[in-house]
Structure formats: C-alpha cells, structure tokens
Amino acid sequence: MQENKEQRPYFMNYSHSIYTRASNQPRALSMLSLLILLLNLTNHAFGENPAIKAILTNKGLQYGSHIGADWMQEKIWSMIIPDISGGVDIGIGTVHYVLDGISVSGCDVPEPSVEFYEGVGLKTGISGFSISMKGNWHTRFGIISDGGSFDLAVFNVDVTSVVQLGSDYSGHISISSENCDARISKASITFHGGASFIFQPFVTLFKDQMTALIEEKICPMVEEHVTDLDQHLAEMQVSFKVNSALVLDIPLTNPPLVESIGLGLDLKGEFYSVQSHTDPPFKAEHFDLPKDDGHMLSLGLSEFTVNSASYGYFSAGLLQAKINDSMIPKTSPFRLNTTSFGPLIPQLPKLFPNMLMELQVYARDVPMFSFQADKVTQEFPGAIKAFAIQPNASRTPLFNLNVDSIFRGMIRISEEKLQGLMKLNNFTLTLASSEVGTFQTAALEKIVKMGVEVSVLAKLNAKLEEGIALPTMHHIHLVNPVLKIQQGFVSIASDLDVKSAERESISEGIYPYQL
Ligand SMILES: *[C@@H]1O[C@H](CO)[C@@H](O)[C@H](O)[C@H]1NC(C)=O
Ligand SMILES: *[C@@H]1O[C@H](CO)[C@@H](O)[C@H](O)[C@H]1NC(C)=O
Ligand SMILES: *[C@@H]1O[C@H](CO)[C@@H](O)[C@H](O)[C@H]1NC(C)=O
Ligand SMILES: *[C@@H]1O[C@H](CO)[C@@H](O)[C@H](O)[C@H]1NC(C)=O
C-alpha cells in the first residue's frame, strides 16, 4: 500500500493510540493454551513424587504453534478495532479528527517460530507480519467539517517474546513475560475524499509518529495477554470427575522443567473416591519417563495412579458383590443351595436342609496393581461370606473364606481410555472361620475359582472395559498412541489432533478477553 500523492494524510499529533490490539500478538501463545488444556492442571500441594509425568517434545510444540497460527489468522479478520480520535496542530489551529469504522482489509501472518528456552520457558518470534485496514475519517476545524475514507498498512512487523513458565503455590502452571521486543519497519496511509490535501506536507511526520506509537504498544499488549493467560491458568478447573465414583487430581508437584528439547511436567496424578476423598495408605514411587522425540507428547502413569483408583473404588465400597442361586446359569447342575454343597461340606445339608444360599464376595483390602515389562499384575485379597437363606428370608451365617487371587493381563489404550483384560493366574482358598465346623476346601476351591471367574473377574473386566479416562481434554485427541508397560509405570507416547471445529472453543476458553 503506497502513499498516493493525490491523497492527503492530515493529522500529526496522533494523541490516541488505541489502534489494533493484538494484531501483532505472537500466535505462539495459543500453543501454550493448547498445552495447558491438554494437561488440564489443577491445584494441590507440593512435596510428593509425581504419579503422572508429561513431556511435550519439540514436535508437539511446533504442532501447537501451527494450530495457534491458524486460529490467529481467523481472529485477525474478525477483529474489532476501536475508533481513534485526537487533534493535530497544523500551525493555524488544531484539527480535531476521528477515525472510525475501521476493519481489517488484509493480513499476511507468517508462521511464528517457537522454541524451548532452557531453564526459562518459551521463546516465540514472528517476523514479517503485515496488516492492512480501511475505515473512515472525519475532521472538524473551527466550524468546518470534512470527511472521507482511508487505507492504512503496517508492514514487516517483527516481534520476539520470551515467556517464563513456573508454578503457583497451588500447583497451577504459571506464565510471565520475561522479555519482549517489537520492530515495525514500514507503514503507509492513504486518504480519500474531502479536503485532505491541506495535510499532504505532513504525511511523513504523521507516518513516523504512528509507527512509533504502534511499535511501543505491541509489547505492552503481549504482556497484557501473558497476564490474562496467567490469570486464566490460575483459575482453571481444579480436578475432574472421571465417572460417578472417581475424581482425578493433577496439580503440578514441581515447577515445569524446560530443556532445550522439551518441556517436562510432573503431576500429582491421584484418583479419589467422590464420596470419601481420602488418600490411600501408600505413596507414589519415583520413576523416569523416557523422552520420545518421534511423538508430540509422552505421558507416564505410575502404579500409584492406578492403585489410587483402585483404592477409590475400594473405599467407596464398590468392590463387592452378592451372589445367589438366580445368578447361577440355569443349565448348571450345581445350585447355590445346601443340598448342592452336601458333597463339599457333608454337615451343611444336615444342619440346614435344602435351603438356598447367598455368597457375599468382597475385597478384604485394596487390590494392588503392579507393572512389569509388558504385563500388569493385580493381587486381589478377596473374601466370601456364605449364608443360608431361611424360609423367613433371614440370613444365617455359615462360614467365611479367604480367597486370594493374582490376576495378570495386558492393558491398552482405546478411545482415549485405559482399558484392559485380566486373567486369573493364582488362586488360593482357605477357611477363615466357620459356624458349621471345619471341612476340606480343595473341591470347594475349584468351584469357587470358577465362580470368581464368572462373577468377580467378569465385573473387574467390565470396569476395565469401561476404562479409566486419560488426563486429556475432550477437544484434543490422541493419534496413534503407543502404550508400553514398564517397571512401575505405563508410558504412552502419542501425537495429538485438535479437531478444527473445536479449535474455536479452545481459543475462546483460554483467551477470555480476546482481541
Ligand atoms: C438374587 O439376587 C438378585 C439380584 O440382587 C435379586 O433380585 C434376587 O431377589 C435374589 N434372589 C434371592 C433368592 O435372594
Ligand atoms: C438345590 O439343588 C438341587 C440340585 O443340587 C436341586 O435338586 C434342588 O431343587 C435345589 N433346592 C432348592 C431349594 O433350590
Ligand atoms: C427366621 O427363621 C429363623 C430360623 O427358623 C429364626 O431363627 C429367626 O428368628 C427368624 N427370624 C425372623 C425375623 O422371624
Ligand atoms: C502362583 O502360582 C505358581 C504356579 O502355580 C506358583 O509357583 C507361585 O508361587 C504362585 N504365586 C503366588 C504368589 O502364590
């Protein structure tokens, strides 16, 4: 957009400089919003081993930056630019002016550069940004009013910004502006219509003033947005409900670790029962999550995270089931009654002839998971209480069994949930107490083992099939996740995809005071 000698720029003492907020906002900040939404940080105390770790690689950073760039381009077109007004001293008096109806008529937003800035945070840069605008001008000089239209262009804007990443006392990620630098190499303005020729001689001076004014506004604008983002982070959702029984808390346990090749986050990663919200009687162990530069993100979930979920279910009393005869398949010759138990416990049908029975199966303690290379083991300390159902429906206790099972299996990722399938590996049954005298348990063990497989194991697998949600956001999807079971933790390396239809709402969410 060249100056047109026929057109007359006319105001000089450009006293208001509201201009285009955010037109030069480094888009890379949107990448941060993405990252933060992805990790959905919550608040809690420090001083524990993290049970979930995340590493954002350079590949992930570049993807986030790219999404930010797309979003920024769309935003610039719909940006609302406030009116500009002021007065210009032209030697024989002051011309009062108003520029209004300003809209973006074109923009060229180059891809920003983003890199990790070791020990600090992120360094973002945008170079060669241009934007053109059009609008109307109105002047008043004494009693003379005049008006017309104008075109304005700002070329080759360069902005570099360094933001520092940290954490606040409650475990949110924090962000602050560490450094900012902005340069505009060229601006041009042309006026159309009215008596604008009067101001033609002042066009260069006006342009230089305006360029300087815009230039010095850019960094405060960037800083304002960093502050807004920090504020938004500090207010983010503290924990999220995974299902009707569990909530997951993932505040930072340490400040973010920024290295030249990636950003590491240590998160609490503890599930709680919605009801009791108590800590389990075990602690998170230290683990090292390996970097995987081929994927955008690596996540590590320790045994603790999974066991805290297990504890949550246990403490909410959800790991129990009642079994009665109506649950035994009709075709089974073995019924859940004292007659069927006769061959196993000879005295039982004598004491309680031909009565239906009920079994209460429950976890005696928290079922604990452990991870070793490529396999998951779960020890289930179970118990069975057996009752005879009297004709008047009252339950008469018969005996208590301890049933210790070791399940082993595999886990996988499906639909962004951790899912699995377990098999019964070891099984021992012992008589803990009896109201009907002692008896041999070998034959009973075989039958109960079968019962465990069709009831408890089936229930457990149903739970694992329902899945434990991974700490990702609904807008951000895992692409080709690779899950590995390692010693003490599970690692998931994945690429990410933000669905374009959902980008808008992500941006809205993170920038409440957008443009
Ligand atoms: C067996 O359990 C089911 C489900 O809990 C229940 O509806 C049914 O009444 C029980 N049957 C007996 C005989 O208690
Ligand atoms: C108990 O089971 C036996 C088969 O073992 C069956 O013949 C009998 O009818 C059952 N009794 C009751 C009360 O269900
Ligand atoms: C139910 O029947 C049993 C056995 O006959 C008896 O001991 C018990 O007191 C009865 N309970 C009720 C509530 O009637
Ligand atoms: C599990 O079963 C295997 C083989 O039956 C046995 O060697 C092992 O000791 C058992 N483990 C436990 C913890 O009971």
UniProtKB/TrEMBL annotation:
<dbReference type="GO" id="GO:0050829">
    <property type="term" value="P:defense response to Gram-negative bacterium"/>
</dbReference>
<feature type="signal peptide">
    <location>
        <begin position="1"/>
        <end position="47"/>
    </location>
</feature>
<dbReference type="InterPro" id="IPR017942">
    <property type="entry name" value="Lipid-bd_serum_glycop_N"/>
</dbReference>
<comment type="function">
    <text>The cytotoxic action of BPI is limited to many species of Gram-negative bacteria; this specificity may be explained by a strong affinity of the very basic N-terminal half for the negatively charged lipopolysaccharides that are unique to the Gram-negative bacterial outer envelope.</text>
</comment>
<keyword id="KW-0391">Immunity</keyword>
<dbReference type="GO" id="GO:0008289">
    <property type="term" value="F:lipid binding"/>
</dbReference>
<protein>
    <recommendedName>
        <fullName>Bactericidal permeability-increasing protein</fullName>
    </recommendedName>
</protein>
<keyword id="KW-0399">Innate immunity</keyword>
<comment type="subunit">
    <text>Monomer. Homodimer; disulfide-linked.</text>
</comment>
<dbReference type="Pfam" id="PF02886">
    <property type="entry name" value="LBP_BPI_CETP_C"/>
</dbReference>
<dbReference type="InterPro" id="IPR001124">
    <property type="entry name" value="Lipid-bd_serum_glycop_C"/>
</dbReference>
<feature type="domain" description="Lipid-binding serum glycoprotein C-terminal">
    <location>
        <begin position="291"/>
        <end position="494"/>
    </location>
</feature>
<keyword id="KW-0929">Antimicrobial</keyword>
<dbReference type="Pfam" id="PF01273">
    <property type="entry name" value="LBP_BPI_CETP"/>
</dbReference>
<keyword id="KW-0964">Secreted</keyword>
<keyword id="KW-0732">Signal</keyword>
<dbReference type="GO" id="GO:0005615">
    <property type="term" value="C:extracellular space"/>
</dbReference>
<feature type="domain" description="Lipid-binding serum glycoprotein N-terminal">
    <location>
        <begin position="56"/>
        <end position="276"/>
    </location>
</feature>
<comment type="similarity">
    <text>Belongs to the BPI/LBP/Plunc superfamily. BPI/LBP family.</text>
</comment>
<dbReference type="InterPro" id="IPR032942">
    <property type="entry name" value="BPI/LBP/Plunc"/>
</dbReference>
<keyword id="KW-1015">Disulfide bond</keyword>
<dbReference type="InterPro" id="IPR030675">
    <property type="entry name" value="BPI/LBP"/>
</dbReference>
<keyword id="KW-0325">Glycoprotein</keyword>
<dbReference type="GO" id="GO:0045087">
    <property type="term" value="P:innate immune response"/>
</dbReference>
<keyword id="KW-0044">Antibiotic</keyword>
<feature type="disulfide bond">
    <location>
        <begin position="180"/>
        <end position="219"/>
    </location>
</feature>
<dbReference type="InterPro" id="IPR017943">
    <property type="entry name" value="Bactericidal_perm-incr_a/b_dom"/>
</dbReference>
